[in-house]
Fold:
Amino acid sequence: MENLKHTPATQLLRNSLDTFLSKDMKAWSDLCAEDVVAEFPFAPEGTQARFEGRESLYAYLKDYPSFIDVKSIPTLKIIGTDDENVAIAEWSASGVVIGNGNPYEMSYATFVTFKDELIVNYREYWNPQAFMKAMSGGSFANE
Structure:
């Protein structure tokens, strides 16, 4: 019988948030499967809320650190589920919007499914009104 090491989904999710905090969106995208599906159900009206494929998701996120400087993750609670491939995070980000100096304080609920230790589905809920207030109507993604 083979002894296969399997990193728990909770640890994989923690690793992904650490990578996000390091502001390396390429490295974060590399944690995703080629056919990843990412959903942001509460994305501001008029912005894309679903991305299919690693390259599409990276194109969306690559410039994020030049618009929002996330300095810390003040709260983080990662929860395992009955499905060993799924983990949930309740977390918050604290930082500054670079273009206007506004504080960026956001709470998230993130549901992540892994396969072969890569993200295959990423679904994140956050407050679009707080986002738009921080951005002062701006956007970090070129639509």
User: Anything to note?
Assistant: Strands lie at 32-39, 50-52, 68-72, 76-80, 86-97, 103-115, 118-125. The first strand starts at residue 32 and ends at 39. The mean pLDDT is 91.
